[in-house]
Fold this protein.
Amino acid sequence: MRARRVTWAGAAGALVVLLALCGGLVAWLNVSGESPLTGDANSFVATPEQVARGAYLARAGNCAACHTDRGGPAFAGGKGLATPFGTVFASNLTPDAKTGIGAWSAAQFWRALHNGRSADGRLLYPAFPYPNFTEITRADSDALYAWLRTQVPVAQANRAHSLRFPYNLQASLAVWRALFFSPGVYEPVVERSVQWNRGAYLVRSLGHCAACHSPRNAFGATRDSLELSGGLIPLQNWYAPSLASSSEAGVADWSTQEVGELLKTGLTPRGAALGPMAEVVFRSTQYLADADIAAMAEYLKSLPQTPPHALAAVTPDAAVQARGEVLYKDRCAACHGVNGEGGAGTNGVVYAPLAGNRKVLLETSANLIHIIVNGGFPPTTAGNGRPYGMPPFGPSMKDEEIAVLASYVRNAWGNAAPAVSTLDVLNAR
Amino acid sequence: MARELAHSSRFMTTIASPFTRHGSLLRRGVATLALAAASAAMAGTPLAIPDTMAQRMQPCSACHGKEGRPTQQGFFPRIAGKPAGYLYNQLDNFRSGRRSNSTMTYFVEQMSDDYLHEIAGYFAALDLPYAPPQTVGAPADEIALGERLVRQGDAAHGIPACVQCHGTAMTGILPAIPGLLGLPRGYLVEQFGAWRTGQRKALAPDCMARIATTLTPADITAVATWLSSQPVALPAAAADTLVRPLPMACGSVPQ
């Protein structure tokens, strides 16, 4: 009896020690590798070159996409990013001393980007993509900091995140970080060219392409973020296709020119940037220097490729195809052509060819359904200032008709992909 | 046509990036060849698409009807012939979140000011006949109340007559005050509702929000009923200038 009590006490004691050790390990993992915080907000003296460079880098990082609310003051935050765990609200980056980052030092700003910790020591949610931004250099961080301090200060208090239990606890976030985040720096690959390394740096750090183009696990962490193998954007139901597959959005067999066209103008002979990528082109990549665009293209073209999917061995339902053809000829053929050949204006293709179109043939039909239901315009850019657009067919077509139409397009003119069901349409719209 | 040419030449001359689609004739040639080769492998030469605003604005017709006249669904507003300044303000309002309609926002959120101005100008310049009035056979007292509010306002409650700002003919005043005729009754009622709840805003001071929150629900339906029962004869162009100063300050119409 006595011996048993001792055993229980010992086990409980061991458990407490184990938990304390785990807690200690998690805490240590969360702050390890941090540089000492030196200097304060007043000790930083920016050069004009730094400020100009910071403005450019803010474009490259597309900071405004989250930190400027629709119709709100620039960089004052307040925009909500819906995640499967709740909504995270972007913070005020203007140099207001009370509500913005006016009282932050350059070292604290760097710690936020590099280590994901706020000036007050709180752990930041990775909706702010510091798993990517951690690779930003200190020099670039300082330039961003210098430029942000030249913005108009806006007194707008940060909105509290609205996250469900247990995701709303710093302790949960600490465990997440211990499991899925470690600070890193971009290590140039010596066998590769300077241009390739520049491209890799931009894609992986500032560009945070992996935030969408990599799959996420059940805890919202991106997996194999270096491979950019495609991911469903949480809650938006857009699939960011794999950049490592010629069946999806891989560009290994594209020319540098064509990759550049997509990122600078939002339009290529194969089709346009629509949905979330339209925003990336509109706010970010269209402004990047040609040399940086070429560097990104070189890196993206070199990504290790997974073998292309074989065309699905599907036998389309003849009745569905017959009905789909009628719908297609009625609604789509005037712009995309009877044979899915696309349409060209005076300066090139404006309506994507659908025969052989990778977007149409993606395994998930989410993007195709989105485009049929909502239509849309590619972004206006210097190279495509007056885009043609696609009407929304959601208001005038039933879910079942959209499924039939999508199935037809996926299996006409040599295309072959699994049929789309009414349920798929219901789930995606 | 002149405008189309002006635009294409502007884009052809000002862009020096190697990544534009139309940077030089040589590149255009190369692109065309590459395009031809790529398409030949797939499905033949692309269709020739007219280089016009009418073609570019196809997406709008899904709701606003062909050529900017509303469809038979009875809700969406006519945009053809509205003053360009008004249309631009609305496009910008959707882009900036002052008005909310998910389709409109989705369409304009990645558009430049230049393009929004051109779109506004395109629809403003359309001069098309109006359909017969949508509302028929409304109760006489409702019609009478509506007409009184539109023509005389309600001085006791500080409501100016609609015609004071929107013009005696109610066809709007350039550059930014819209006409009120030829709009669906449901659309009119919903706009008042949206002003009352803050779903629709304009640049401050938001005069229509003030008016909408002062009117009673019965006033609003009467105004919408009367306006949507009026036939519109052409020409229905907006008036050039305000005859008198506006009775209240409106952020969308700087004076």
Observations:
- Chain A touches chain B through 62 residues (CB under 8 Å).
- The mean pLDDT of chain A is 94.
- Residues 194-265+295-301 of chain A form one domain.
